[in-house]
Amino acid sequence: MKIITFLVLANLHFALSTKEYEEADRMVTWRLQNIVKKYKNLATGNAEFSQWIEKINNIAVRSDFRVKMEMEGEFNVYDQMRQSYEDKITERLTTIRSLIAQRKGGNRCVKFYQHQQNELKNAYKSSNKRKSQVVTENSRDCPTRKREKRMYDYYNDYDNYGF
Fold it and tell me: Which portions of the sequence form the region Disordered (predicted)?
């Protein structure tokens, strides 16, 4: 009698575990599908982002629970980095707009900041790695010393400086 009770309880636990597993699988599938719905249009024009969304869409319908969970975690890390870089781009663009409006540093600096503004706007559709590079390269203030002017003045004749 004790053996039968043990077997019934063991089967009941297995049945509940299977039910819980199936529910967890449904939930992760639902979350992945929501990611696809949320970001599908936003990813247009950004090859790296589009590849993530396509990969998530494929995994959501064709993979097992473990793979789905891993993909969700990897995407969340990627997406946090993407949003962080885009926030930095937006912050720098706000600063640049203000500097241009104030005409800080004269015409040469206005052109310098307009170039940075262009680079930063174009970076929104770039890979995370490229966003990081663009933010770093375009976070400088207009150079004031002669050496800095030669290095970063986009509108000077570079041939005069050996570039």
Answer: 123-143
User: Which residue ranges make up each domain of the chain?
Assistant: 2-161
Q: What are 59-62's contacts with CB under 8 Å, separation 24+? A: 59/32, 60/29, 60/32, 60/33, 60/36, 61/29
Residues, the chain, total? 163
pTM of the shown model = 0.75
SS3 of residue 141 by DSSP: coil
- Tell which residue, 156, 89, 163, has the closest CA to residue 126: 89
Torsion of CA 100, 102, 108, 110, to 10 degrees: 10
Closest CA to 114 of 154, 148, 147, 157: 154
Angle, CA 107 vertex, CA 91 and CA 136 arms, to 5°:
30
Question: What averages of pLDDT result for each successive group of 10 residues across the chain (163 residues)?
Answer: 48 61 90 96 94 96 90 96 97 95 89 96 96 96 67 46 32
- Residue 159 is given by DSSP the state G
